[in-house]
From TrEMBL:
<dbReference type="InterPro" id="IPR036249">
    <property type="entry name" value="Thioredoxin-like_sf"/>
</dbReference>
<feature type="domain" description="Thioredoxin">
    <location>
        <begin position="36"/>
        <end position="108"/>
    </location>
</feature>
<comment type="similarity">
    <text>Belongs to the thioredoxin family.</text>
</comment>
<protein>
    <submittedName>
        <fullName>Thioredoxin-like protein 5</fullName>
    </submittedName>
</protein>
<dbReference type="InterPro" id="IPR045108">
    <property type="entry name" value="TXNDC17-like"/>
</dbReference>
<dbReference type="GO" id="GO:0005829">
    <property type="term" value="C:cytosol"/>
</dbReference>
<dbReference type="Pfam" id="PF06110">
    <property type="entry name" value="TXD17-like_Trx"/>
</dbReference>
<dbReference type="InterPro" id="IPR010357">
    <property type="entry name" value="TXNDC17_dom"/>
</dbReference>
<dbReference type="GO" id="GO:0047134">
    <property type="term" value="F:protein-disulfide reductase [NAD(P)H] activity"/>
</dbReference>
Length: 122
């Protein structure tokens, strides 16, 4: 899975460019918004590693607490307000950015359930 660290170099546009145009409900791409300082993130890390396929996912590190509070990922098209967040992207190409707001997602405690996580990525 590509790892995209925080910073100006990794804009929302660069994240979107990681998602294949062939992405579809049958072949989704997963965006994982994560921080190493976040206790919820470290708690679910092994489950994410186990269930989310590397080749169809992008790990986005949101930065330190200050960077996270001012992150562009909190705004459209991602609208990530809590971490960890796992977004199931089911549309690529031109429809990608407009589809993210309604894309299925698991957030924080929802990621603690191996059954729910397994079903989500299936």
């Amino acid at each position: 899975m590509p790892l995209l660290p925080p910073g100006d170099l990794f804009s929302p546009e660069s994240i979107l460019s990681q998602i294949p145009t062939s992405t579809s409900p049958e072949s989704p791409h997963f965006l994982i918004f994560f921080a190493e300082w976040c206790p919820d993130c470290t708690e679910v890390q092994s489950s994410l590693d186990q269930h989310v396929p590397d080749k169809n996912s992008t790990l986005v590190l949101v930065g330190d607490r200050t960077q996270w509070k001012e992150s562009k990922f909190r705004e459209p098209p991602f609208n990530v307000t809590r971490i960890p967040t796992l977004i199931r992207v089911e549309q690529g190409g031109d429809a990608l950015a407009s589809s993210l707001d309604s894309a299925p997602r698991l957030v924080e405690s929802e990621l603690r359930s191996p059954e729910q996580l397994s079903q989500f990525v299936a």
